[in-house]
Design brief:
11 helices, alpha/beta, 7-stranded mixed sheet, Rossmann fold
């Protein structure tokens, strides 16, 4: 496993789940960047010539992507998977009166649907909370031959100002680290995907002060480190030193928060004619979503 990928134990995953459960109510009011990234991904789907029967949004959150997928693919079944049931409960309101997504509360590293069962996997800003190699292997398993994966994640320069400011105070982990675009591309190839394409956007949000940066991160549940490591007592004096360090980034009356957004898409190769015959003769369906 690449050292940048995060192998989380059950306790750490449970802690992240409960953290997002607690933020479900206030998430959308602060998730400005998350909505923008999701919208940019949805725009890219206009260039894809697929007519999917089944789509899954992995890391669906409160359902912004689900809503867009239902509008774009009006005849497809849309599944919404998230680790947080509180988030998913808000996704179910996004389909309108006549059409609802199928909700799956579960782990992206172990998805409870059958092999070769979905045409498109859509995943916006979820991958950074997981072991990317495990997730890509699951994505490859559930994707039909000829199906497409489209995802976004955060790159290493994300929140570089906040990370720098904390380093002026101590050497503890206060800001999560993120995997480089090239490592994600390598992981796609290692797990069997074909024709991976990767690119990057650098996006900057501006705030009146560093406290507002941290409040936004808290409201979307992004202020919890992946690893449950002891960070020590954060005294008022130490916190003020962080705020003072962040002030060095102030330009024209505001402070920035940089996000390096990595976009990727790849395909599951079509099976050979021999493989298709073998699958048709011997496969057994374990599809749990009807």
């Amino acid at each position: 496993m690449h050292p940048g990928f995060k192998a989380l134990n059950h306790i750490e995953k449970y802690r992240i789940q409960k953290h997002f459960d607690a933020k479900a109510e206030c998430y959308e009011s602060s998730a400005v960047l998350q909505r923008e990234v999701c919208d940019r991904m949805l725009e890219r789907l206009h260039l894809v010539k697929l007519q999917p029967e089944k789509i899954i949004d992995v890391g669906a959150g409160t359902g912004w992507g689900v809503q867009g997928l239902m509008k774009h693919y009006r005849s497809a079944q849309v599944l919404a998977l998230d680790l947080s049931m509180a988030m998913l409960s808000r996704s179910k309101t996004k389909g309108g009166w006549l059409r609802k997504p199928s909700l799956i509360c579960g782990d992206a590293e172990s998805i409870a649907i059958a092999d070769n069962s979905v045409d498109i996997i859509f995943s916006s800003l979820m991958l950074q909370w997981c072991d990317a190699e495990k997730v890509f292997a699951e994505f490859h398993r559930i994707l039909k031959p000829g199906g497409m994966l489209m995802f976004s994640s955060f790159g290493p320069d994300t929140l570089k100002e906040l990370r720098h400011s904390w380093k002026q105070v101590d050497n503890k982990i206060h800001v999560n680290s993120f995997v480089d675009m090239h490592d994600l591309g390598d992981a796609l190839l290692m797990t069997g995907f074909a024709e991976p394409v990767m690119d990057i956007d650098l996006m900057t949000l501006t705030y009146e002060n560093a406290k507002d940066v941290m409040l936004d991160l808290k409201n979307i549940g992004a202020n919890t480190p992946m690893k449950n490591e002891h960070r020590g007592l954060i005294t008022p004096r130490k916190f003020q030193r962080v705020l003072n360090a962040y002030e060095t980034f102030r330009v024209e009356g505001v402070v920035p928060a940089t996000y390096e957004v990595v976009y990727g898409h790849a395909w599951k190769a079509e099976a050979s004619s021999t493989e298709k015959l073998e699958r048709k003769e011997f496969s057994v369906s374990f599809d749990k979503i009807k």
